[in-house]
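Re: the multi-chain job from yesterday

Posting the exact lines I submitted so nobody has to dig through the queue logs.
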Amino acid sequence: MEPLLSLQIDDPHRTYQPGDELECECQVDAIDASDIQAIETSVLWYTEGKGDEDLGVHYFERRVPNDAEDGDLRPMHRFATVLPNSPLSYSGGIVKVRWCARVRLFLRRGKELFFEQPFHLGAVAPIRI
Amino acid sequence: MSHRFDDLAPMFPDQNPFSTWAVRPGAIVFRFVNGSSRESVLTKLEENGWWGEVVGPHGSGKSTLLATLAPGFEERGRTVKRYVVKLGEKQLAINTLELRKWTPNTQVVVEGFEKLGRRNRKMIETVCKRQQAGLLVTCHESLGFPALLQTSISLELGISLVRDLLPPDCDFISDDDVRRSYERHRHNLRELLFEMYDLYEKRRPRDG
Amino acid sequence: MLFLLGAVALTTVIVSQILNPTPEVLRPGFGFWLMVVVMASFVLLGGGGVMLTAFQAGASIERRSALVRQAAGIDLISEALPSSQQHPNIPRDADLTNSPGVTLVFRLPTAQMPVWRLTLATLVFLLLTAVTSVVCVIVVNHHLAQTPDWFLTLFAVPLVIANFWAVKYFFTELGVHTRHGPTCFEISHHPLRPNSECEIFVSQAGRFSLPAFTVALVCEEEATYSQGTDIRTETRVVYETEVLRQEDIRIEAGTPFEAHSRLSIPGGVMHSFQSGHNAVRWKFVVRGTPVSGPSMARTFPVLVYPDNQNGQE
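And the result, structure tokens for all chains:
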């Protein structure tokens, strides 16, 4: 059975302005604690469109079993970050900028799982070609 | 900043199915024709002592084929050393220390081999022979290596690729659009997909 | 290699000094300290490279990117980066605001026009003119001496036509670069922000007439695709608004044409953005189409920052 990976963003509308605090909760289930090697949580932007994709990480945290009580990384973990001034979310013609929160689970024997939640930063109007 | 985006999944409503993450070599799986398959191509290469060439015009899927073959090399215990020769490059950016690391298990893969200078090509061939490494190259015209596959594009292939990339309920890009684009960019699948990006962007329904 | 060389040499230098101290070499300016500084820099540069290679192998893309961002937090590195930490991925404006204006606050530098076409035209023009002249002199001499060389005469005809074309092309290119005098562009604010106003001043020197002289504020996206053996860069204009238009103007030598204008940057537009393969660029474009001869287009890049309501400034 596949482990369950959940990630929740506090604002149901998922729209933020620069300087706002983004709060997230992540949790892992349906897996043995000893099978987890590390969990990475991050808040990042990436580009999409006609060019090669670029990526920038705004917030990053890596936790290994030694960082948790009883060495168990499964219980709910909260993290928060103040969002930056730029780059803002953008839906352009050939360049798009996306923001998301992401959790990545590293299992023993090199297996890896990830889950992400998109959100919108700023109020840039989409481009209509 | 350059990253591989093997794990980015579509999430946004204004996502374009012809974005680079969806159409770059590796994201699209090579469509084998005439009964060939990834395994048969790899077996043929192995029988040729891991030497071969993939010949085909610009944008006909050579890079996509290499990306499709890549996991197969690992399964057969070969370590791939991949080099891409960009336009204007006459020499492979590679140092002698790296060359010495090539072993009989190394599969050297050079994309755009014909762009290299004659001496540089000869040098790579000599090193591969000396160290018994495999050499797989892509080129527009045959360079005399054992022929592995000839890539080409057909209208049917273009239509089938576009259909697969489009969301299931999309009705604003038709086979006729692909046909017209195919005529304009004859034999160049990459240009066809770039044009489909623009067409999708122009016709997609807007939010609100 | 650099790291190993630096580490071994630095250790050797220091250990030899500890085991066999010679106080006079420790004096400032002596080779010992120079050696230490050079070797230490080798260790730092090489070590950085080793760490980067190590991190790139077997780490998630987020982790690698976070490490790069952490490194950018170091003052020396962050100063050298193209964007500031307060406005990530927006180019710095140092090059755009280091020249004060005469009428308004800043004088914007122009984007360089590529001169390779003029260079090529000059070379072709010179070479072809030399060859054509020699051939023509020989042909004329033969004809004057009543011993016409018809093969050479026939050969001279296409050469003269090609030379005529080369002369025309050369002078057209030369005109593009020299005919229109310098354009001076000044601005009251920089960087620009959505929902704000700014004043511009433009001055055009030269000696020509223009049916229309315009200034436009343009935003364009740029995306570079480099998969396989392909590298292609595509740009697309996504916003353009005319901020100044003057019709039927005549510019005389020594009396440049000058004009002021006010413009509003609309709300909801994307800020300037720069990443590895993608960009959003803003610029003013000054255009003029003369009655005859090549048209003029000069570009003045500007930066647009986000409209921050509650961001950290």
